[in-house]
Description:
- By secondary structure, the chain is an alpha/beta fold.
- The N and C termini lie far apart (38 Å).
- It has helices at 37-40, 50-60, 80-89, 103-111, 129-132, 141-151, 170-179, 207-217; strands spanning 2-3, 5-10, 19-23, 48-49, 66-70, 93-98, 117-121, 156-163, 186-190, 224-227.
- The chain contains 8 helices and 10 strands.
- The model has no long low-confidence stretch (mean pLDDT 95).
Amino acid sequence: xxxxxxxxxxxxxxxxxxxxxxxxxxxxxxxxxxxxxxxxxxxxxxxxxxxxxxxxxxxxxxxxxxxxxxxxxxxxxxxxxxxxxxxxxxxxxxxxxxxxxxxxxxxxxxxxxxxxxxxxxxxxxxxxxxxxxxxxxxxxxxxxxxxxxxxxxxxxxxxxxxxxxxxxxxxxxxxxxxxxxxxxxxxxxxxxxxxxxxxxxxxxxxxxxxxxxxxxxxxxxxxxxxxxxx
Length: 230
């Protein structure tokens, strides 16, 4: 497996762990607000292979205690479980970021106990899901199945939504709340613009709007928090 990015240390990406973050290429979605679109459109180049990464981890034993996989969409890579297995054998905890569109691989990873934490993006309400993902249409069955898998997994996880003024309004969060009703942890992440974002003219909601959306989500989840907004 090729790695397309490596953040050598982070205290933010993997709650409770000093971790590194691995970026894998490819994605099923074309979200217009994506921060890592170079991983999606194929313009990114690999930075190292699997063997080099495992050698890096061996030197960091005792300094790092976790590895977070993100993308792109890591679950596009069917060889991911094998790499996770090697990482766990070295004593590291593993986190997975996913868009939830590959429930078969997610189920295999969960059944084997290869991850300690998962973060799944909930893009929007069902009616707006496809457009928020940059698609004309999509089958949401895989998304619902991944939600169910995580809810019944027994591992620690979070659902999260990147909130964009042009894509989200209060009613969307009522619908999102119904999708993930009863989950333990949910984050609303305010959109931030970057040079790598493929679609211009997008904005973060106001602080007041974010607070309103959080109040709505607290009706459906045990803990709903705002992330990334002062």
